[in-house]
């Protein structure tokens, strides 16, 4: 067979070979066999000098065409193999494989609840204030209109360090410290730990409160109601209703307990004919205590109650967390079981 | 405070239900806890007449009776009570009725005789402890009506079936009696109050001087009065009184004592009945106790007194702890015949101090601590005397023995409607304000068109200031009817540009730590001294709680470690394989310079234990180690924009080994990292290494607030890297090698970092591989110049540390 016929037969042979090719290595071997330095094409080309000068240009052209054709065939085959591999990968892809678990970081539900409350008040323009957890009797009680023999001290069974120093029983001391150091107007929110000498199913000896205080000229009780309604709606949803009930706190007058419509049953008091377990059928939940700052408190920090007025409120963070997240056991908050903590990922 | 609904209705014609009343009182600041039915359990008991009563043929103590309960046929009932007799009116629990304790009456046979119910004793109905025999009912009830046979006992005898449990805030001294509630209901609903009617018949000569009363301290006792009753016969009180007292939680004792309790509950005036004949010298002296004086109170306890305690004395000895509890020696006994009935007012402060110190809370002290109405004394004394006379057959002697060193004077209070409107944010009319104040018993006198002078009644100890009156106006106007408004919040220009607050900083750190994958823990601030001792923490500087709840919570934590280690324990015991917790909280140490005597420093503490990753198919099962915790601390510094800290071995740490001090670039100590000593780890069930870090966040916050983030231009030309492995003895630290590298003077080295540490077995040495990075800012480096530099560095390190390559 003459050289040209052999040359022109190469693409056909390669096609034949490629039909049997399996895998990348096989394909590469075929390429080397046909297009390699010692391959079939090279071998034929080595006979070029045996041809007459007249035959050479045609042979050269044919060789180029054959080379191009074979390169195309190899590329096609390569593309096909890649397609097949991709198809096989996609066909065998298991989307159900569990993701690689990184560390599941979390914030404590008390922190989450506290931040939610704080952020609502920050957005209203309140600033965060703080104070020490170990406080003087003066800041915790006396400045708040609770002299030593005041019956209201029954309500605060307090842990003492010595006769004059105690673990703060409420965050209201933050009010006192702030007012002592600054002049009105003031709009502050004071989150923190508080302590009572009380431990049972519904009380832990340490818990968290948030104190709020607004002092300015002409602050009214209607402002208090508006502010707390706005806050409770921001945290518990726009349909939340608010109820004020008269109450007593030594540092506010008038004082009110604030109830909100039960977030569980929507204030209806029952779910599917059964009494709501969260509000015990009443439709209301006690959520915080508040009132207009007592003139005695203003006097003890050197403000003139005829010049300024203000409101103050204090709420329990655990209570908010329990209502928001459905926590049932207070003590779980302080066991720090990671199965509990993992439920509050950030 | 337990308020009988029936009793209240005797004072005020309220027509709603007990629940409606409770709701109304709640919205008036008197919160209803619940409405109870104290006699609900005996509502099946009926009134019956014993028709016949024969001895049981086979028993020496049982009786076979027939009892008419209004049915066609009388009920045969076998009764074991010794006092049962034909003709008696009795309480019958017929078959099907229930009794307290859930006992359901069934048809029974007692020694062969069938019985269709039970004739009840008071104890069986939980009316009293009396179980001496069956209860024999009076022929008429309290109102004089004859009950029908078969009528429900609780209805027939008008028992107090509904009782409201109302929680009273400490300011509402006026609502510690039926009368107090009647006044509020009357004021709010505009209903009249009817005081109980009685006839007091004084007998004999004027005895007002017979027991001279001397009050030595008007500050303790503004007014003291008493009456003498003679010829009393001590006996049980009539049924209606016992059952009523029982309904509101007061145990009946005897007619004289029960009257004092009855008046206390009804009018809120504490009374005390002395055995007149046992008052030595027949006189009363009210004075302060001297330090160390003693009295034995009614409950048989000897009480050691202090100066300031109020005492009632006779001519020789203390006979009562004023306003708190009577003395044992002069108490009314079964033989008492002559009574001195005390009706006094004491100052709240003194009573409170005494009751608190002695932990002696009586119904009397509870009221005196809050304030007893001085204007109600006379009525209460007369009503009590009349009732005692009626129940005990005593004669009330003519005249009142009294001493009133400080007669009551109504406080005068300024009231401005405009002030009330301004504080509440509502508009009010003069007419409404006046009507409200007057309905509460105040007198109102206009001083000018916009200012009134208000006098509060004696029972309202809580009304002394304008704010108190405004509160009453607010309550009667309805605090729940206020329309909410949103105040504009004052903004102060100076606030903007202030450094980040402590709270915001700590929150940022918490978010960072959680984002890194740790779980936030919150532990109690107090631990036990034992916990601190276990970790070998110093005893000095601890802040001890004076009145701890338990020994496990008797000291404030000086470090966060005890809590976090306990959390590790908790999680191990729950089967956790890996624990990564952090806590941001205060550590407390004594500091005499602080105004609270305590220094509070906010710390970030972290603990790592066990598996580095969750038990999961995609991770190698490896435990966390030193470089995990150290990496976190390094990252924290970077996050806060601080220079890299230095780490050096810390000697003598109480609970960590190794313990590594974390220092700021300037050498100040900022924290510690280390492994809990294995000997201490057993306590926390930890079999693997517990890695711990503690950083002073107040310090880092201060440092972070002055650090600035500065951008550096990105390099233009590529870096060339060369890895070098040094073979070093075990005493050479990685840091030594890196320091030696940077100690060699070169111009091309950009940085050096540890690439690998390999410890060939049994060689006693380590292979430390360091990656050197070379770069020039102005051109691309040539291989040759880099190799030259590398050689220079290697020989420098070899020379400096005696290592090989």
Architecture overview:
The complex is a heterodimer of chains A (346) and B (805). With 346 residues, chain A is an alpha+beta fold. Helices cover 40% and strands 21% of the residues of chain A. Chain A is built from eleven helices and twelve strands. In chain A, the strands form three sheets. Chain A has a seven-stranded mixed β-sheet with strand order 1-5-6-12-11-8-7, with helices on both faces. In chain A, a hairpin with a 2-residue loop joins strand 3 (160-162) and strand 4 (165-167). In chain A, helix 5 packs across helix 10 (317-325). The longest helix of chain A has 37 residues, at 55-91. Chain A is rod-shaped. The model of chain A has no long low-confidence stretch (mean pLDDT 92). With 805 residues, chain B is of the alpha+beta class. In chain B, the strands form eleven sheets. Chain B has a seven-stranded mixed β-sheet, with helices on both faces. In chain B, strands 13, 15, 16, 23, 24 and 25 form a six-stranded mixed β-sheet that branches. Chain B has a five-stranded antiparallel β-sheet with strand order 5-4-3-6-11. In chain B, a hairpin with a 3-residue loop joins strand 21 (318-321) and strand 22 (325-326). In chain B, helix 7 (348-357) packs across helix 8. The interface between A and B is large, with 90 and 94 residues.
